[in-house]
Amino acid sequence: MSTKDFVEKDYYKVLGVPKDATEAEIKKAYRKLAREYHPDANKGDAKAEERFKEISEANDVLADPKRRKEYDEARALFGNGGYRPGPGGAGGGSFNFDLGDLFGGAQGGAGAGGFGGGGGLGDVFGGLFNRGGTGTRTQPRRGQDIESEVTLSFTEAVDGATVPLRMSSSAACKACSGTGDKNGTPRVCPTCVGTGQVSHGAGGGFSLTDPCPDCKGRGLIPENPCDVCKGSGRATSSRTMQVRIPSGVSDGQRIRLRGKGAPGERGGPGGDLYVVVHVGTHPVFGRKDDNLTVTVPISYVEATLGGEVKVPTLGGPPVTLKLPAGTPNGRTMRARGKGAVRKDGTRGDLLVTVEVAVPKDLDDKAREALEAYRDATADEDPRAELFQAAKGA
After folding, report:
1. What pLDDT, in 10s, does the model give residues 55-67?
2. Could you say which of 146, 217, 269, 297 would form a disulfide bridge with 357 (CB–CB 3.0 to 4.6 Å)?
3. How many structural domains is the chain composed of?
4. Domain that holds residue 365
């Protein structure tokens, strides 16, 4: 990333968010735009592909708190006309020194413009532009981060699964092996002499380094531009990879896979792959953190007299739970070790909520038995305490 990119490109505008946007707002805006302009959804649309690259580049900077801070500081320092100290400024005289001294963390007092101490702006720009001061050779460049989505069934989310992911990203053009030239024989750029960078004055004694405008920072110019990548050496590449989703993931969880994003340039490391997981529902089981939940119907007799009931488990044999006499409707019991897998490999519990089932149809024998029970308990009023409490309130 060049100095000029950070000073002139408004990444907040690219994503359509305000400068004080939260990480969640930036993430939401990126996802929406990435889905709209993704190459898979815009086959053969060069403008959509370029827009997708801009969106990804903006997200790379703004989604990383450290890079975002550096970006904001750079625009505050060099934006809107840049920093132009002149005669009579700090130190009482002309302010003229090589920017390489500043980037290199030179020690200076008030007479040198007040940028004393080690690090200072050198720390900011060293991390911001991913190169040290006045280097004369093109540095390796880290690949872009990629975000993808995957939908798992309820069982796959609990137990973990290996799923295929198809991704599109910028990579070295296969047709020309990344050279940008049909014959694989590009020539050294005469403007930057193969460094990929040119320096120019920025006023006030500053000297800035930007990618060479003739070779676009590559240091090479193709004699016969490749028909696929148009001489850029980069092309959109689609690949399918098998990704292991760990057990116990929850709906909406974002998993980071280091180095599995877009390939780097000039030997640089690959970017990261972020996988957003969506989890389907289950007709019987639910989930609460590391525990699974299930509602089990029981009869009035079981609730009153107690007994044993069998309860289904996810992917395993049923378990038997003992109901104590007088179990109320809605009581929750626990079957230990029958829940979702935790990060440490242990399992949560199965939370069993009992629900008294009221029979819809009764035969004569059952009806007579219930009527006899009603007569035997006629003196008992389960609502007596309710009304008594209501009167006293």
Report:
1. 888 888 898 888 8
2. 297
3. 3
4. 286-392
